[in-house]
Amino acid sequence: MTEAPADAEAHDHSHADVSGGWLRAAVFGAMDGLVTNTALVAGVGGGGAPPRAIVLAGVASLVAGAISMALGEYTSVKTQNEQLDLEVEKERRELERNPSGELAELTAMLRVRGVDDRLAERVAIQLSKDPETALRLHVVAELGLNPGDKPSPRVAAVSSFLTFGTGALLPLLPFLFGVSVLWPALVFGGVGLLVAGALSSRFTPRPWWYAGLRQLLFGAVAAGITYAIGSAIGVTAA
After folding, report:
1. Are 91 and 142 in contact (CB under 8 A)?
2. By CB neighbour count within 10 A (0-12 exposed, 13-18 middle, 19+ buried), where does 10 fall?
3. CB under 8 Å to 80, separation ≥6 — which residues?
4. How many C-beta atoms lie closer than 10 Å to residue 18's C-beta?
5. Which residues touch 161 (CB under 8 Å, ≥6 apart)?
6. Which residue of 25, 76, 93, 143 has the smallest Cβ count within 10 Å?
7. Which residues are CB-neighbours of 226 under 8 A, at least 6 positions away?
8. What is the chain's Cα-based Rg?
9. What is the DSSP letter of 180?
10. Which of 101, 184, 189, 176 is nearest to 138 (CA)?
11. b or e along 137-163 (b: 16 or more beta carbons within 10 Å of the residue's beta carbon)?
């Protein structure tokens, strides 16, 4: 058996949140808030609405959107966790009813991962002596989720609420400070999209400029479409 080098030692390291908890909710909330209110401001402003009406519509969108996002994230994550609990219990019952079949299944999992046949069988037998360890291994292998690492619905909801509200506020800031023309609000929204996209690249292999420009493009398309619709409706109504 090959031994580890004498100078080898364990070291601590961490990974980003990939279980669908606060990070996904925060990124989605910020992007959605920015795109939603930048597009809304463009559409309402393109229709010729006065600044007061734009602010009213934008604040209503911010509040309603933040609440909707928070409730949606809470429900989504809670449902996912409950579904995982249901599958864990189903696997637990299967381990109790058919231990030999589950042992053979675990042995096959180890073989697929490159463990020799005889060793795979010995390891499977050893691991199966602890029912909870065997259960966790089966769930992780079959569902791709760790039952001990479930995301928090409350954290996801709060994260989504705060980041949506922050993102939705940015394109409204020029009007709140007394600006009466549309373009500064669109610039604020565009800068927010660029920065939010660039920050999201810290958790992906994409370069910051790619992620930032991609999100800016998405927001520009949404704002352009709503501006055109707002202008058409405004002209028609006039």
Report:
1. yes
2. exposed
3. 20, 151
4. 11
5. 29, 66, 67, 69, 70
6. 93
7. 39, 40, 42, 43, 46
8. 26
9. -
10. 101
11. bbbeeeeebebeebbbbebbbbbbbbb
Burial of 59 (0-12, 13-18, 19+ CB in 10 A): middle
Q: Tokens at residue 12, please?
A: 């601590």
Total number of residues shown for the chain: 238
Please give the model's pTM, rounded to 2 decimal places. Answer: 0.78
Average pLDDT of the residues in 3-26: 57
pLDDT at residue 116 tops 60: yes
- Please check the confidence at residue 70 and state whether its pLDDT lies above 90: yes
Handedness of CA 95, 99, 101, 102 (dihedral sign): positive
Which residue has tokens 């760790």? 146
Tokens coding 220: 């520009």
CA-based nearest residue to 192, from 17, 22, 29, 20: 29
Q: Which amino acid is it at 102?
A: E
Residue carrying the six token digits 């996209």: 197
Task: Please give the structure tokens belonging to residue 163.
Answer: 């980041």
Q: Could you tell me if 13 and 42 are in contact, meaning their C-beta atoms sit under 8 angstroms apart?
A: no
pLDDT digits (tens, 9 = 90+) for 132-160: 887 888 788 777 777 777 889 999 999 99
Q: Which residues contact 209 (CB under 8 A, 6 or more apart)?
A: 198
